[in-house]
Amino acid sequence: MTQLEQILTQRIMLLDGGMGTMIQKFNLEENDFRNGHFENHPINLKGCNDVLPLTRKDVIANIHEQYLKAGSDIITTCTFNANAISLADYQLSDYVYDINKGAAELAHSVAERFTHETPDKPRFVSGSIGPTSKTSSIAIDVEDPGKREISFDELVEAYSTQIEGLIDGGVDILQLETFFDVLNAKAALFAAEEVFKKKGMRLPIIVSGTLSDQSGRMLSGQTVEAFYTSIAHANPLAVSLNCGLGAQQLMPFVERLSNIAETRICVYPNAGLPNISCGYDQTPDLFAADLKEYMQRGLVNLVGGCCGTTPVFIEKLAAVVKDFSPRPLPEKKHETRLSGLEPLTIKPEFNFINIGERTNVAGSAKFAKLIREGLYDEALSVARAQVEAGAQMIDVCMDAALIDGPQAMHRFISLMTSDPEIIRVPIMLDSSSWETLETGLKLVQGKCIVNSISLKEGEEVFVQRAMKVHQYGAAVVVMLFDEKGQADTYERKITLARRAYTLLTEAGFPAEDIVMDPNILAVATGMEEH
Fold it and tell me: Are the C-beta atoms of residues 308 and 279 closer than 8 Å to each other?
């Protein structure tokens, strides 16, 4: 990390180009995908590029070498689909670890050789992690908008195995790329954090999203600003856009990303837009000229190519990057940023944030009745009305007798996140049950806020839950309770707030993601001591 950060302060770094594009040039046949490892595999493997670092090491090593000779500082492993979910199509889910470890070892050996030959230009390996073939936040059944293809936990399990293989194989960076559903990306980041804790180490991460069209939104509906807000908790080395569009079409969206991101900016577009044959017609010179404009405008820190780009494209880029300085890292503003499909930034000059409370079973008898009776479509209309009336955030609480909190939270949030009119604003997950809160955290692709945690169960549980909330990519409301009960006097409130704040910030929780609830309701209890 230190070496990468040092280089990135000095110059723009070069990624490689398209892996699939290069593999196509070798015209490989079925035997190439079986060679020495999968001779008796029951189904055809042709097209499963992820096995080639095992079965045709020479081909993948040759591609890595071509990109390094062209000037790449960073080469990516041939592991884009090397996860249990995608490899299930080829009945290869049991080989995920071995495939990733083998691909990383191969790329590492090539990069190490080039670094040894030119020590003044170190080369790095980035472990390619794709979005999988399934989406976790987009409805798959028009008859049941709450139904999903895959769960957050299933994604975490799949990504954990892939990440362990990449790390054990020697990658220097983890590169989450071409993510069209940010909840999938959050699951990959969650998995990476779990693996880092298990191994007692940490690698830098690049997170790259892809836009579905020139509306500037991802397939899951998020804007580029909401995308960055949703993944910023992972403190990535760089945030990026890749694939989907060519350099010219991506530029306004990279500029928007550059305006908000408090980390480095990376971009690696396709070689223009695809033609009617799904090929790419842009020349290396035009590609380099388009990306030169990014550099002239000071937008980027890392550049490379995606679909349709080859070593010639990288060679042309290498001739350009040396003339430009990298985008300087902006100072952190420490603003509270939340997101649904769109961002919400809470600035000091704001008066108050209007939170819709009618989707709270404790605050609305009508809503509670609808949930108890399973009338979720009608309950959804309550949320929609709140947003239409101007709510900047929607509070969802399912804590009531005769309601299964986790089950109700799962069903209602799943339906909410399928309605773009509702989910454009952030969600406040409201519960006194940790199980219910965690259920909601696994369903929200944006950056939500958890209401609430407190010191009631002691410091260890308090900090542990807060850091788990942060790992899910959420902010938190701290209720001013401690082991002795509610903070009911001015002095107790201030003391307890200071204690909670100190515990959280010293544990690494961002101060701007802490909201204090001083329990003002205590003045209205009617009890003499209040």
Answer: yes
pLDDT of amino acid 523: 66
Flag whether the pTM goes above 0.70: yes
Of 240, 306, 290, 246, nearest in space to 267 by CA: 240
In what side-by-side order are the strands of the sheet with 124-129? Answer: 13-14, 302-303, 264-270, 238-246, 205-209, 173-179, 124-129, 74-76
Indicate the DSSP class of residue 425.
Answer: S
- Which stretches of the chain drop beneath a pLDDT of 50? none
CB 453 within 8 A of CB 462: yes
What does each C-alpha distance from 408 to 179, 220, 426, 436 come to in angstroms? Answer: 29, 23, 19, 9
Both tokens of 59, joined, read: 């081909």
Partner residues linked to 217 by β-bridges: 223
Q: Residue 142's CB: how many other CB atoms inside 10 A? A: 8
Helix (H, G, I), strand (E, B) or coil at 452: strand
Please report the pLDDT score of residue 244 as a whole number: 87
Structure confidence by residue, pLDDT tens digits, 281-325: 899 999 999 999 999 999 999 999 999 999 999 999 999 999 999
Which positions ≥6 away from 289 have C-beta within 8 Å? none
| pLDDT tens-digit readout, 495-524 | 999 999 999 999 999 999 999 999 887 666
Residue 448: alpha-carbon gap to chain centroid = 14
Residues 6+ apart with CB under 8 A from 31: none
